[in-house]
Amino acid sequence: MTLIDGKAVADQIKQEIAEEVAAIRAAGGKIPHLAAILVGHDGGSETYVAHKVKACEQCGFKSTLIRHENDITEDELLAEVERLNNDPDIDGFIVQLPLPKHISEQRIIEAIDYRKDVDGFHPINVGRMSIGLPCFVSATPAGIMELLRRYDIDTKGKHCVVLGRSNIVGKPVATLMMQKSEPGNATVTVCHSASKNLKEMCRQADIIIAALGQPDFVTADMVKEGAVIIDVGTTRVPDASKKSGFRLNGDVAFAEVSPKCSYITPVPGGVGPMTIVSLMRNTLLAGKKAIYK
């Protein structure tokens, strides 16, 4: 069994980005600038945005964090999005999700200029991805594909089962896995809460990508010998032994599943670091105007 070390790969990619940014700086070019809008004080969002700011520093980017309280109105947030759309110094920006219930996340996503949508959530980027055109690919699916690429995991003709159909992970990673690309060219089955015979489906899989948000959902009896397991789940589970009072738990029962695998990602330290670094890569592309002029 090979443990897929997402942190090590992410550190390597950050170094590659930093070297490219240093070359841009030396040539007198524009340094990529990422902005993030954070509404409220959700613990997970605070942590995630802090990681993004730190990653920007490591990559040599400029970064701006814009904070708003939970009582911001939808119109006020839309005005903030429009301001960033029109700011020539901002190459890319994100609006950290989730948002308060009185704000339509979809309306905010669609208001972002797709050329600055480094989260890859805008319908134009999603549509371009679905037909294989250059675009900003959402960070977690892009990170998964990069792990498969860097570990030279063969996906061509393999049966890939994706557990989960979210717009952020399940749907886009299923699309990427079936593209005519490397990695890709897989036969993809998407399973979800309404799927029947789910265990039987998983047992047929060469590759399982678990993105359900249900701790320890994938057990040993669902996995065939030699399968590749990509665990996207990061659920906070109470743990009195931890200083924080919780631990991060994946969708895969790691201890019982890992002995059966050829490759597996841990939680934490697997897909998570790749999500951050994929956002950095999108920001670099945005700064270079490498996708949209």
Description:
This protein starts with a strand and ends in a 5-residue tail after the last helix. A hairpin with a 7-residue loop joins strand 9 and strand 10. Helix 2 packs across helix 10 and helix 6 packs across helix 7. The protein is built from ten helices and eleven strands. By secondary structure, the protein is an alpha/beta fold. It folds into two domains: 87 residues, Rossmann fold; 134 residues, Rossmann fold. The strands form three sheets. The protein has a six-stranded parallel beta sheet with strand order 1-11-8-7-5-6. A three-stranded parallel beta sheet has the order 3-2-4. A two-stranded antiparallel sheet has the order 9-10.
Keywords:
293 residues; alpha/beta; Rossmann fold; 2 domains; six-stranded parallel β-sheet; three-stranded parallel β-sheet; 10 helices; 11 strands; 17% strand; globular
